[in-house]
Amino acid sequence: MNILVTGASGQLGHDLVLELAGRGHTVTGVSSKELNLLEPMAVQTYLCAMRPDAVMHCAGYTAVDLAEDEKEKCFSVNSRGTETLAAACAAVGSKLLFISTDYVFSGDGERPWEPDDPPKPLNTYGLSKYRGEEAVRRYVPEHFIVRISWLFGVNGKNFVKTMLRLGKEREQITVVNDQIGSPTYTKDLAVLLADMIVTEKYGTYHATNEGFCSWYEFACAIMKEAELPCRVLPVSSDQYPSRAKRPANSRMSKDKLTANGFRRLPPWQDALRRYLAELKENYNG
Asked: Class assignment of domain 2-157+183-210+251-266?
């Protein structure tokens, strides 16, 4: 297949380009420098020239707290930029896979969210991604919307790298223990997305590594696996206020993956071990 990947310089886009290329696809990875989604004519021209069989849209504005102060910028990228790309895909007949987020949900309750549960975002970032979902559904019948959470990968900033840094700098840190979700390794996710894009099993999916934990539990696991002596103390979200409100319950059901014959991702604990080994190998290299 001839595949265009946006956000190729980010965590997921980086691993996705490598995974697709390794499978023999013709892959073009672009960042905002090569393809500015805020320029509709440029996007239309680019896709008309390339005529991709599929577009995998990993690009996005992801500064969750800053988005509360930069609402216009957040919506311009995640909502209007996605709409521009979806319209261009429709014009050239490309299928579209859009990466969305657990933040489209309210975070109420404790049961895992199903893909068809009604979204109710708590913050600007979540709402902007949901508006992007709506645009994809409106323009491209042949679409995949994949909601993910708590990403970590080798290319870019993430929670694991932050914990590793703090674990070396400090004797003690505090991490919230009342937000529950699933850490997700971009390498594992890239495998699933590469499996998905060659099918016609369109719709909305949830895709994360298996298992749930709090940020506190995740931090404890990072320190243990990395053999760092830093002590991690649990605190409530009320004790650690942030600019954007986060959902307390980010558990997401992956049953739809199973129902459609897709292989689910490994447990997050296993993913963390492999990720730390990848970081060590890259650092030593």
From this structure: alpha beta
